């Protein structure tokens, strides 16, 4: 009886969309930790683990935003530039004398505004998400450059020390605040995605947008919502970046759109939409951070680290495409063969 109950629980777990790949990549993550630990025992040191988790946190946050968008079958290429824009706007406002918390709030509102714009361009103007977010990516990067007259900002000063402690340097219960921020955002957005009607609608839009429209779902509103989540997450990471550096840098967020996609697809979020869970994004971000950190300990150059991560992303997407489209094509071909065979027998 107990074995049967355990089997039922296991079947329910495996029935969750994307759980199979999450388990697979978790095994891969454990293997990476073992390999890098053998190559360098200091990889397991408390200091390195703490720094690794703090390094992973921003990637997890933007990965959450990108996962929301990918699950609807879209993509957000503007994430990295919005991170840079957030970093520069917040730091510039602080160096001009604005209260750090007011600057933080205004910056987040602007980043949410970019998310709304992306959603409107994709949902109502019917622009392909690649083109729409490529355009806003360029605009956001331009804003990051022009906000302080094409210069990085000065130091944000002692008045912003509380802000810097909240987003990067401070700790609570012995854990860096950056990690706490990532954990809180994960819990909130995972609940919204897995336990609410909006979350169910997000999956429905990604699975079949036409069927979603026929069932009464406001697909345009869902699209706007996921881009708002993406803009918000990118804004938070921009604040973390300015708190880390103590200033605004115009090149902040470069390549972050790639890191966000990497965390999502490695963790099992489908680029075709309708599949993926945020715990997978956690594992994907952890794999990204482990590879960066472990290869650094192994003495691998930055170029090699980028090549390895890029190859892993390509393989992850390729496997997703094969799994999602290969089986239907095979069954379709099989059905066609059966029908031809039946026709031949009938004649």
From TrEMBL:
Transmembrane segments: 21-40, 52-70, 77-95, 101-123, 166-189, 224-246, 258-291, 303-323
InterPro entries according to UniProt: ABC_transp_permease (IPR001851)
Membrane disposition: Multi-pass membrane protein
Entry keywords, A to Z: Cell inner membrane, Cell membrane, Membrane, Transmembrane, Transmembrane helix, Transport
Domain of life, per lineage: Bacteria
Chain residue ranges for the region called Disordered: 328-347
Subcellular location: Cell membrane
Coiled coil residues, start to end: none
Keyword match Cell inner membrane: yes
Keyword Transmembrane helix attached: yes
Name of the featured protein: Autoinducer 2 import system permease protein LsrD
Species this protein is from: Caproiciproducens galactitolivorans
